[in-house]
Amino acid sequence: xxxxEPTIYDISSPGRKGVNLxxxxxxxxxIPDDLLRxxxxxxxxxxxxxxxxxxxxxxxxxSIDSGFYxxxxxxxxxxxxxNEDAARMPGFLHSHPLQDINTIQGNLALMYELQELLxxxxxxxxxxxxxxxxxxxxxxxxxxxxxxxxxxxxxxRNKILIxxxxxxxxPASTTMSGLEVIEIPxxxxxxxxxxxxxxxxxxxxxxxMITNPNTLGLFxxxxxxxxxxxxxxxxxxxxxxxxxxxxxxxxxxxxIGFDVMHYNLHKTFSTPHGGGGPGSGPVGVSxxxxxxLPAPIITIIEEGDEDNPPLFGFTTPKHTxxxxxxxNGQFGVLVRAYTYIRIHGSSGLRxxxxxxxxxxxxxxxxxxxxxxxxxxxxxxxEFVVEGxxxxxxxxxxxxxxxxxxxxxxxxxxxxxxxxxxxALMIEPTETESKETLDKFADVLxxxxxxxxxxxxxxxxxxxxxxxxxxxxxxxxRQLVLCCRPAYLPEPEPMQT
Length: 496
Fold this sequence. Notes:
This protein is an alpha/beta fold. It is about 35% helix and about 10% strand. The protein has helices spanning about 45-60, 80-85, 90-95, 105-120, 135-150, 170-175, 195-200, 225-230, 265-270, 330-365, 395-405, 435-455, 455-460, 470-475, and strands at about 125-130, 160-165, 180-185, 205-210, 235-240, 260-265, 285, 295-300, 310-315, 385, 415, 425. Helix 2 packs antiparallel against helix 10 (about 330-365) and helix 5 (about 135-150) packs across helix 6. The radius of gyration is 26 Å and the shape is globular.
């Protein structure tokens, strides 16, 4: 371990404090002894100690602001600072969802306009902003699909078809909804196998969850036929919007028959990932599912005129699945996405998609003679290569990723999709320059050469990071799920 920052407990010193609390202006009451802890064991530090500690920790992190982040299927692209400026405007920042609607008309107007923009971008009839993440949007969409069939007395449908190239959260969302997952394999070109799809369609199918472009980075060449097959057997089409960054401004999923789709605002409209939150996964639906949207929906409850703006409020769809998120969703994230869309406009959003596709294909072309591509087709916004060679039998995708860290690059997605051996899924996004892509490609080519001439340098990588490679076997057997303050006793060793 190099340059390891000690824990905040390790740098604690008795008697130090970071703030001086004012004398309380309310009566002081005794607290019963049985409610008092004798020793809180809290760290004692000055404010400067704390600032320096967390500043040091922050510098150990890799982020999109500090380096290239080609994490396939996650779309780690730069977040324009104007998005942050908009989200911090006092009228947005200091509002509360329990305020009277007359006092938050600006908030509601923004949310309404965002709904309308997302409807237009996706070609949908209705949109909900409630879901807190992409997977939450998936669950919301499946619940609407299920309730749609049940409302028509179609109670036999209990299966969701999911291609093996779909986004990884799809099976989990389906299972959480109480439906059965049926996997559909890919054909030799990385498309949904049409013949197998036809054989699985029947009156027990709720619908198909499909990611297009799929997690191989490939556009489904027979997507119209796929949609028709599902609709002909009475099912619905769920489109996973995880890869919408390749299509925005070019193709509207609703126009080709998608019945429901979630948007990942962080992936397509450049809001922060936030380390697992905050997130937002708005869902767009076709005419069939408008009445099943979660409640409430932002709407105009009183039309305006030349002198007065409209009055915004809430409405409840006829067959709503109910509320699926407290209050009005992740409002701060919605402000950032709205800002991004308005800044770029329709032409800018299309240009972003085109550049994402261009960057991915450029990078693919730089390494395709050295790294094996399982599907030799032009990609869209991302692509997948095999991180292994016959000439280097001891090298795996993980070794390549660890070695990339020595050059200041975040590794790509490893071992997904599962249908590609030793998969490395690479997504450069539209925000990276040609110089960055060239440097990354050169490093990948160097690593490929090292794998064959000096494999040990990969096996022992990373060499230049604050922490060396973990012992995965030991980590799996001796789980440490949180930091251990200095005052706590060491755990008893595990019996083997």
